[in-house]
């Protein structure tokens, strides 16, 4: 067995031990296929007010500009599918936001994985990324054979659907590289048909500026009046395109205690959300990704749904 093969197996076994769903590896380099797609998407202003998407164009497409001397992109998936969901009579939160903010949970695991690599293999330099830097994580995960990018632009796998986070370690160690899997969306258009705001403008293209997640999390201005009645009770994020996807029949509940919701969250009704105080907000979302929208932002979203 070659060293590259041995190191790759070591890393994948440790990733599994740390609780990651799966781990794939691809060669660090320029993402040729993604470049024209990203450029076209930005030129059509599909990023809306997410101006940060326009920054670091070159770095988004080439990890060797992010991590000097990098040779491999190690992509990892972490399941967040919950065992229980919110009560039916409630304004809805995207399932990924039920528990502790995933940035903290995954960053810790990635640091442990990098420390393990350095301990077991030697002097390896690298950086951990959890959707907080210009890295096209879905493209790298697909390149690493972890799934294919579906018509709703999320990564999909036949085994477990799409309810998982994607993260990367970009390291200066040569490894054994995986190959992409085939697309299994077929003729299905469930996600396109179900999107309440018609944000999936064509298969595999999502206009970010029309997405409910964009409106309820990223948009800081007033919500547009022409979207009234189209949010399907989503107050933070949206899971519609994932919920209707046939592959998500195979989603299994996660086993990460930090992703479990605050005890009060699942039973809160529409009335509870309408009357939520800042104190309750801080208690329920103490370490949650919902803090991104702040108390005022969540109230704005709830008001928009209520009126």
From TrEMBL:
Annotated cofactor note: Binds 2 [4Fe-4S] clusters per monomer.
Residues involved in cob(II)alamin binding: 60, 131, 155, 166, 213, 238-239
InterPro entries to which the protein is assigned, alphabetical: 4Fe4S_Fe-S-bd, 4Fe4S_Fe_S_CS, QueG, QueG_DUF1730
A GO MF term: epoxyqueuosine reductase activity
Binding annotation for tRNA: 220
Co-factor(s): [4Fe-4S] cluster; cob(II)alamin
Residues given in the record as [4Fe-4S] cluster 2 binding sites: 195, 211, 238, 241
Metabolic or biological pathway: tRNA modification; tRNA-queuosine biosynthesis
Binding residues for [4Fe-4S] cluster 1: 185, 188, 191, 245
Domain (4Fe-4S ferredoxin-type) ranges: 173-205
Top-rank taxon: Bacteria
Catalytic residues of the enzyme: 131 (proton donor)
Keyword annotations of the record: 4Fe-4S, Cobalamin, Cobalt, Cytoplasm, Iron, Iron-sulfur, Metal-binding, Oxidoreductase, Queuosine biosynthesis, tRNA processing
Location of this chain's protein in the cell: Cytoplasm
EC number: 1.17.99.6
Gene3D superfamilies to which the protein is assigned, alphabetical: 3.30.70.20
Reactions the enzyme catalyzes: epoxyqueuosine(34) in tRNA + AH2 = queuosine(34) in tRNA + A + H2O
Known function: Catalyzes the conversion of epoxyqueuosine (oQ) to queuosine (Q), which is a hypermodified base found in the wobble positions of tRNA(Asp), tRNA(Asn), tRNA(His) and tRNA(Tyr).
Family: Belongs to the QueG family.
Quaternary structure, from the entry: Monomer.
Name the UniProt record assigns to this protein: Epoxyqueuosine reductase
Gene: queG
């Amino acid at each position: 067995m070659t060293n590259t093969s041995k190191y790759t197996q070591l890393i994948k076994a440790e990733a599994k031990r740390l609780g990651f769903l799966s781990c794939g590896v691809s060669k660090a380099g320029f993402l040729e296929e993604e470049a024209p797609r990203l450029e076209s998407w930005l030129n059509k202003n599909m990023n809306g007010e997410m101006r940060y998407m326009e920054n670091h164009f070159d770095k988004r497409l080439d990890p060797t500009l992010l991590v000097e001397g990098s040779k491999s992109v190690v992509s990892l998936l972490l399941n967040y599918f919950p065992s229980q969901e919110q009560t039916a009579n409630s304004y809805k939160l995207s399932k990924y936001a039920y528990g502790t903010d995933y940035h903290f949970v995954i960053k810790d695991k990635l640091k442990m994985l990098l420390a393990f690599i350095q301990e077991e293999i030697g002097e390896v330099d690298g950086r951990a990324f959890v959707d907080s830097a210009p890295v096209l994580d879905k493209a790298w995960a697909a390149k690493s054979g972890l799934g294919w990018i579906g018509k709703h632009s999320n990564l999909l796998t036949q085994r477990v659907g799409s309810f998982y986070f994607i993260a990367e370690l970009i390291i200066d160690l040569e490894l054994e590289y995986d190959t992409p899997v085939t697309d299994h969306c077929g003729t299905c258009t469930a996600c396109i048909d179900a999107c309440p705001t018609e944000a999936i403008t064509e298969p595999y293209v999502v206009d970010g500026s029309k997405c409910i997640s964009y409106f309820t999390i990223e948009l800081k201005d007033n919500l547009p009046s022409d979207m009234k009645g189209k949010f399907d009770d989503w107050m933070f994020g949206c899971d519609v395109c994932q919920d209707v996807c046939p592959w998500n029949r195979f989603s299994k509940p996660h086993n990460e205690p930090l992703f479990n919701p605050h005890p009060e969250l699942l039973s809160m009704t529409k009335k509870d959300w309408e009357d939520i105080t800042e104190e309750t907000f801080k208690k329920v979302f103490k370490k949650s990704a919902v803090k991104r929208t702040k108390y005022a932002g969540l109230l704005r979203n709830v008001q928009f749904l209520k009126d």
